[in-house]
Amino acid sequence: MLGRGLAAMLAVLGATIGGALAQSTTPSPTLDAVRARGMLNCGIHTGVAGFALPDSRGVWQGLDVDLCRGLAAAIFNDPSKVRFIPLSSSTRFTALGSGEIDVLFRTSTQTMLRDTTLGLRHVTTYFYDGHGFMVRANLGVTRVRDMADATICLIQGTTNEQVTADYFRSVNVRFQPVVFERTDQAVAALQAGRCDSFGTDASQLAGVRSAMPNPREWTILPERFSKEPYGAYVRRGDDNWFDIVRWYTTAVIEAEEQGITRANAEEMRRTSTNPNTRRLLGVTPELGQSLKLDPLWAYNAIRAIGNYGELYERHMGESTPVALPRGPNNLHTNGGLLYALPMR
């Protein structure tokens, strides 16, 4: 009896392990489609400084844009093999669900209902933000509670609509929402005087203000009314693709934790004896193998776009027009919230 029982247990264990191994080797239809196409289709914002905005030559620049380029480099070793697809807040998730894009890097807050009801999965947080309001500096407004009966510009299909309504209801103050599909429409209405304030995430307010003719005329009020953790989104049902986007994003943060930059990645790959660095940069191949990517996937991405700190300083840092302090988007070792999961 004991022998038959042990044999049965071993059979169940073997079936479980076999099933797990089979699942781990299941090909990714999204990765297969990207490779066959020779191009990554990446959903981005229609235009906000710091995240996604064409420069004077018409070339897209920004944190989200570079995250798209880095993912293309991880897959193809070529950051140019990406097609940017600008999407409004109201169309972004539909575009992803329909297969128009492969991944969404577009200032998209991770929420429970988005994760559980849209047929999509948020991946991992790469930017922490909070809802705020911007007003004309000469109004003398110092807190949002004082904006009774204010007309507020909002973007359709964002968490900011609900956050604004919830706050004013909680303090029993009336306001008048004016809803637009795109950020540029809301900004034009704000500058034309149709709205007293613009309500959206503070980082986007900073980006919007930086592109205005006279940024000093506008004040971003210091209060924050929500948690807005941005993460990439992918379709449900493709675990390998989810893993690729998740661990690629993590690798960019991990590179900053290890002090790996665009400039020194090649030297560190040649000379480092740190096992974590050797794994990340593909000297030992197991990380790439687990994702069904080239062993140099993370090395190629870092060489193309740099680590997270480099991305932030290039697009949001104090030397840029956005000039947004890192705050919660600093590494956990520097008082922020960014924390790379162990890559081993």
TrEMBL record:
Keyword presence, Magnesium: no
Q: Which GO terms describe its biological process?
A: amino acid transport
Name the keywords, alphabetized: Signal, Transport
SMART domains according to UniProt: PBPb
Q: Name one Pfam family in it.
A: SBP_bac_3
How far does the signal peptide extend, from start to end residue?
Answer: 1-22
Q: Which residues form the Solute-binding protein family 3/N-terminal domain?
A: 39-268
The lineage's top-level taxon is: Bacteria
Q: Which SUPFAM superfamilies match?
A: Periplasmic binding protein-like II (SSF53850)
Q: Which family does it belong to?
A: Belongs to the bacterial solute-binding protein 3 family.
PANTHER family recorded = AMINO ACID ABC TRANSPORTER PERMEASE, AMINO-ACID ABC TRANSPORTER-BINDING PROTEIN YHDW-RELATED
Name of the molecule in the record: General L-amino acid transport system substrate-binding protein
